[in-house]
Write a structure and sequence with these properties.
With 929 residues, this protein is of the alpha/beta class. The chain is built from 31 helices and 33 strands. The protein is 37% helix and 15% strand. Strands 8-7-3-1-11-12-13 form a seven-stranded mixed sheet, with helices on one face. GO terms for molecular function: 2-methylisocitrate dehydratase activity; aconitate hydratase activity.
Length: 929
């Protein structure tokens, strides 16, 4: 059977799902289309013409290469197609973004036929996705006196690819659609359980919110054909949780505009809004699509005569509505005056934060990528011509304040800033390009990162990137048909692109399904580094890390850069003494609670948490930085003592060496290079040349939080509060309760110890508790299932060497087997211990889940509705988050414990301890890792 016959069969199968033909990325299939197009007697010719024009993916896909070559033949008169004139062929090339299309355009522009050359040059002037191979051809032609090359470069130096675009419309008419009350997670927009379909945009769009919501949105579009539907988080923040690009892709698919008539299901310009604005990680993806993100401020705190907030019986501020955004409300956004108006023109709220000069550029260009590449292209052309680039783009916002010190993140940004004109150091609020040192791509967004790299015509990782890793952890639990279809091709693509990969495309080393955040934390070997990763929990305890969408990851891989404002910082310090029976996870939860108690509002949201945690090794400190995603912080920076940092770097070196020993080194020598960087950094610290990163004494912070360890005398639990009468208070991470709140009456249906929040010490705690309970009771019986998933294989290997794995095996009713991995997800659990494969497991929610309606107590990070556990018809599923000892004991008891039961169970256990750093660092560090 031919590929085209296979494609027709696939089309028939997709019709049954209500889907259109899948966009084509296979060059061999496009070659068959062309044969039918050339054969005027073919019964398939008309369909093939349409598939060729409207359904072939652009960029560096195999399909784009074959398409571009045939379009070149049409332009040169070597082939004739009635439906595709040479002029139309040029138009099609103009929508193909780069790679083979730019190569063809350069061939034509630098050729001998003057008419064709000029047409090709006119198209090239609109293109921005040029790489070194392309720009080298232009500079060579310029040096040879080619007038067309000079003309193209002059156009680039003047940024005509941007200036000749239409301006952003002054008035944007919208009709509202309230998706939900309270914070809206990207999991609602793109469920984790549907991760396998993300690269098939139309299919993935079927999982957006709900079928009922989709019907309501379509009805609004029919009722208001002249307006755009604005998606709203009422009384909440839009786009919290994961940083998945598929969330905004789905919003754009249902509510945006088609980016190109020749590229299906790639939409741009969605309008999204939230009472409390847009989460930082989601705002990035809004910019990628050239969309608009509105901070509504439509609910405000009710105050008394003295201006103090009025509280309800639960101690929460009473809110009052300033104006309604109920579904179906017609509003107007004035992009010039930067105001949100009612249908009648009444001013409702200032929305200037949505229309900064940089964001307006993204909107005009149809997305942030075009701006990033455009600026680089303009700089290249100006340098090639020996002229100053024309002042076209909004200048980088550069805020300096002579005499004012720098926070830690300000220091990191200043070290890595690119293209800065200011003479003084930059402070928070500055908007700059920065070099990216470490990049991580994870497996459920990696297929989209592949597509983005192909779309921007990138072929190899930027040489300025120190380390880049592709994980296999989000699909580690179940080696099902979806994983088998997607993972190998993802690993092959990324390995060829230049990344170290969790799985070897050649099958020569054992598949590593280690949690990506743990790997990135190990390969980050400089506390001054900037890290970008395709997950909101990219929160390293060395350097500063930002969770990002798949597109920003692709951009960082291709260019070694990212553009972002320098965030404000909140300083977190500690006082008092940590009680012996407390675990560091309790300190993490208490930080959030004490912050809310001290400030009322979440001062962490959208800012960097600078945590002075210098006595913990990076493995343990990561528990804090990881949780900052749930605090809604943009990132976190750990301030570490010199000796502690050296210890963390030595540990990182040993783990990188293990990766090398297992055969994971890339042919480009990336892992060995990282060990060299770590050695150099250690030498700097030891010599005193460059001590561990610290802020200046006179740095300016948005706020300061002092965590009193003496107040933490009970284990703390983050509760989704699923039955709160105020739905906006459900499924947030702000409800932190002591264990006594539950009076030992809270039934626990399943316990989970795993995810990126645990380290080696946590798995050792499980083993130690089992030993203690066995010694005291003779044996251990579980009244609820306990699922344990170590985050990395290194940890499993070390536990085996140290004797801890043996007791875990003794009580396990299931132990993972890499020779025979599970092929189907577990749907029912027995009251036993499950030793699952290293990876994300239940925390991800895309493969394994608890039984519907269960109450889960977990060490993980996510408590959003449906993430770890779905609702049953008669009971809401709930995922409560706690420390490892609380989870283990609750699974054994089948309920939350009393304080007496808890203290007895952890007596003598080596919990994760923390001692606040002294004013003068003593170099102390925890020995527990």
């Amino acid at each position: 059977m031919s590929l085209y016959t296979d494609y027709l069969n696939e089309i028939d199968a997709r019709k049954e799902q209500g889907l259109n033909p899948k966009p084509i990325d296979d060059g061999a299939l496009v070659a068959e289309l062309i044969e039918h197009i050339k054969d005027t007697s073919s019964e398939h010719r008309n369909d093939c013409v349409n598939f060729f024009i409207y359904n072939t993916l652009p960029g560096t896909t195999n399909a784009a290469g074959v398409k571009a070559k045939f379009l070149k033949e049409i332009i040169l008169g070597e082939a004739a197609v009635e439906e595709i004139s040479p002029e139309f062929a040029f138009e099609l090339l103009s929508h193909m973004k780069g790679g083979p299309s730019v190569e063809v355009l350069l061939d034509l522009a630098l050729g001998d036929d003057e008419s064709t050359s000029r047409q090709a040059a006119d198209v090239l002037k609109t293109q921005v996705f040029l790489y070194e191979a392309d720009t080298d051809r232009l500079t060579t032609a310029l040096a040879q006196g080619n007038a067309i090359a000079k003309e193209i470069l002059e156009s680039y130096a003047n940024a005509e690819f941007f200036t000749k675009l239409p301006e952003v419309e002054e008035e944007i008419k919208v009709v509202t659609y309230v998706a939900a009350e309270g914070d809206i997670s990207t999991d609602l927009l793109s469920p984790g359980g549907e991760a396998h379909s993300r690269s098939d945009r139309e299919l993935h769009g079927k999982c957006f919110i709900s079928e009922k919501a989709q019907q309501e949105i379509e009805a609004l579009k029919l009722q208001h054909p002249d307006k755009r539907v604005m998606l709203i988080a009422e009384k909440g923040t839009m786009g919290v949780g994961s940083s998945r690009m598929s969330g905004i892709n789905n919003v754009a698919l249902w509510m945006g505009k088609q980016g190109s008539p020749y590229v299906p299901f790639v939409n741009i310009a969605p309008v999204v809004a939230g009472t409390n604005g847009i989460s930082p990680i989601f705002q990035t993806t809004v910019g990628v699509t050239g969309g608009v993100g509105i901070d509504l401020k439509n609910w405000v705190k009710k105050v008394d005569e003295d201006g103090k907030a009025i509280l309800n019986n639960d101690g929460n501020p009473v809110l009052e509505q300033k104006y309604s955004v109920a579904t179906g409300t017609v509003l107007k956004i004035n992009s010039k005056d930067q105001k949100l108006l009612s249908e009648d023109g009444e001013e409702l709220v200032d929305v200037s934060s949505a229309f900064t000069p940089q964001k307006v550029e993204f909107m005009k260009a149809g997305g942030s990528y075009a701006i990033v590449f455009g600026k680089k292209l303009q700089s290249f052309a100006a340098e090639a011509l020996g002229v100053e680039p024309k002042a076209v783009f909004a200048p980088s916002k550069e805020i300096t304040d002579e005499g004012r010190g720098l926070t830690a993140v300000e220091k990191i940004f200043n070290r890595n800033a690119r293209g800065v004109s200011a003479k003084g150091a930059l402070h928070a609020g500055s908007d700059v390009r920065v070099a990216v040192n470490i990049v991580g791509s994870q497996d459920t967004t990696g297929l989209m990162t592949m597509q983005e790299l192909e779309a921007m015509a990138a072929t190899v990782v930027s040489p300025s990137v120190d380390g880049a890793y592709q994980s296999g952890c989000h699909t580690a639990s179940v080696w099902d048909t979806k994983a088998q279809a997607n993972t190998p091709r993802l690993m092959k693509f990324m390995n060829e692109f230049g990344l170290v990969t969790g799985r070897d495309p050649k099958g020569e080393y054992h598949a590593m399904t280690d949690v990506i955040h743990k790997v990135l934390n190990d390969i980050t070997v400089d506390d001054w580094a900037i890290i970008i990763g395709g997950d909101s929990h990219t929160r390293m305890s060395k350097g500063v890390a930002f969770g990002a969408d798949s597109g920003t990851v692709a951009l960082a891989l291709a260019t070694g850069e990212a553009s972002m404002p320098i965030p404000e910082s909140v300083k977190v310090t500690f006082k008092g003494t940590m009680a012996d029976h407390m675990d560091f996870r309790d300190v993490v939860h208490a930080t959030q609670k004490q912050m809310l108690d001290q400030h009322g509002d979440n001062v962490f949201q959208g800012r960097v948490i600078e945590v002075h945690i210098g006595t913990l090794l990076a493995d343990q400190a990561f528990t804090f930085t990881d949780w900052t995603a749930e605090m809604k912080a943009k990132a976190s920076v750990c301030i570490s003592n010199d000796e502690t940092l050296i210890g963390s770097l030595e540990l990182a070196k040993s783990r990188i060496q293990i990766m090398i020993d297992k055969g994971m080194e890339h042919e480009n020598g990336m892992l060995a290079k990282l060990i060299g960087i770590a050695d150099a950094r250690i030498a700097e610290i030891k010599s005193g040349e460059k001590p561990a990163l610290t802020p200046d004494d006179n740095a300016k912070y948005f706020a300061e939080v002092v965590v009193d360890l003496d107040q933490i005398d009970e284990p703390m639990i983050a509760d989704p509060d699923v039955n709160n009468a105020d739905v906006s208070k459900r499924y947030t991470h702000d409800t932190i309760r002591p264990i006594s709140f539950y009076k030992a009456e809270k039934k626990v249906d399943l316990g989970f110890v795993g995810s990126c929040m645990v380290h080696k010490g946590d798995i050792k705690i499980v083993a130690q508790m089992l030993k203690n309970l066995e010694k005291a009771q003779g044996k251990v019986e579980f009244k609820a299932p306990l699922v344990v998933a170590a985050p990395t294989y290194n940890i499993v290997d070390e536990l085996k060497e140290e004797g801890d794995w043996e007791i875990l095996q003794k009580y396990s009713g299931f132990e993972f087997d890499d020779l025979f991995p599970k092929t189907t997800a577990r749907t029912e659990y027995e009251n036993i211990l499950y030793l699952e494969r290293p990876g994300c497991n239940l925390c991800m929610g895309n493969q394994e889940k608890a039984e519907k309606g269960d109450t889960v107590l977990a060490t993980s990070t996510r408590l959003f509705q449906g993430r770890v556990v779905a609702d049953a018809p008669d009971k809401k599923g709930e995922s409560l988050l706690a420390s490892t000892p609380v989870v283990v004991l609750s699974a054994i008891l089948g309920r939350t414990p009393t304080m007496e039961e808890y203290k007895a169970a952890v007596e003598g256990i080596d919990l994760t301890k923390f001692t606040p750093p002294l004013e003068k660092p003593a170099g102390a560090k925890s020995a527990h890792f």
